[in-house]
């Protein structure tokens, strides 16, 4: 199939683009490169032995999207494009509502005009908010606690309403937990701009000498070692989940939701120790005050994806750390030369 991938130059987008190319699909990436490098796609093409076309278009540029659809005639869309930092979203909420929510509406309007009604959407476990018992299941009431999460929730609602109004739409909503790791080649990986918000890239940058020490936000949570538990999932497992969801929605009209997670919690300290084992170094850290908005623990019930998509996360924490370290140690400054 000809697949248009928004945000395809980004971390999860580039890994999914590689998996699509390897599965024989043609891929057109739409990315404004605001938070990604075109180098990631050069390397994806090198790894796949086939090119992914890059169209540098902003999702809010409806005319630019029209030109892209007119030229490339995609048959389905995998939609990653958007801003994704929880803390930043509280500081500049309007940018998040414009880029994420309004940008998605522009994309959907162009898709409808070109008769493209298959979409896999990158949603997030953050939509579950702080009211649900874990493990989270897809039928739970959602309620995000920050502007970033609310844009994901709004987009899920928009897609649900579109699917209810026109049963020609085939939509998969994928709620990710915590993506980490990198392709085994070490050629592509996570390259956050500025100081990493997330745990794994921060640990990796300490290991490679870019950051002085890890600050662990809170050691007094009601967990086995006092640090928060999260459901970490290897980014290649995640990419494979997108291909499984695309295949499913191609056969099944309607709107479908799946958690993409491993189904278990790993603590911050456990992840730090696993990364030390992977990089062969003792990594400096200190305990710091809790971070506002952090939940003590949550993880996925991923049984629906297993039953319906035949998909489950398979790569271990050790593999996540080994692959992440191979990428970071080979690319200390990410994609920057
Ligand atoms: C994990 C744990 C931190 C950094 C976020 C988004 C979510 C999704 C995934 C997009 C927490 C601790 C972190 C550090 C630390 N993103 N930590 N020191 O918060 O579970 O989820 O990323 O969809 O929407 O909310 O991930 O990696 O930021 O934090 O101690 O320097 O690591 O307190 O307990 P989180 P995270």
UniProtKB/TrEMBL annotation:
<keyword id="KW-0520">NAD</keyword>
<dbReference type="InterPro" id="IPR001509">
    <property type="entry name" value="Epimerase_deHydtase"/>
</dbReference>
<keyword id="KW-0299">Galactose metabolism</keyword>
<keyword id="KW-0413">Isomerase</keyword>
<dbReference type="GO" id="GO:0006012">
    <property type="term" value="P:galactose metabolic process"/>
</dbReference>
<comment type="pathway">
    <text>Carbohydrate metabolism; galactose metabolism.</text>
</comment>
<feature type="domain" description="NAD-dependent epimerase/dehydratase">
    <location>
        <begin position="3"/>
        <end position="261"/>
    </location>
</feature>
<dbReference type="InterPro" id="IPR005886">
    <property type="entry name" value="UDP_G4E"/>
</dbReference>
<comment type="subunit">
    <text>Homodimer.</text>
</comment>
<keyword id="KW-0119">Carbohydrate metabolism</keyword>
<dbReference type="Pfam" id="PF01370">
    <property type="entry name" value="Epimerase"/>
</dbReference>
<dbReference type="InterPro" id="IPR036291">
    <property type="entry name" value="NAD(P)-bd_dom_sf"/>
</dbReference>
<dbReference type="GO" id="GO:0003978">
    <property type="term" value="F:UDP-glucose 4-epimerase activity"/>
</dbReference>
<comment type="similarity">
    <text>Belongs to the NAD(P)-dependent epimerase/dehydratase family.</text>
</comment>
<protein>
    <recommendedName>
        <fullName>UDP-glucose 4-epimerase</fullName>
        <ecNumber>5.1.3.2</ecNumber>
    </recommendedName>
</protein>
<dbReference type="GO" id="GO:0005829">
    <property type="term" value="C:cytosol"/>
</dbReference>
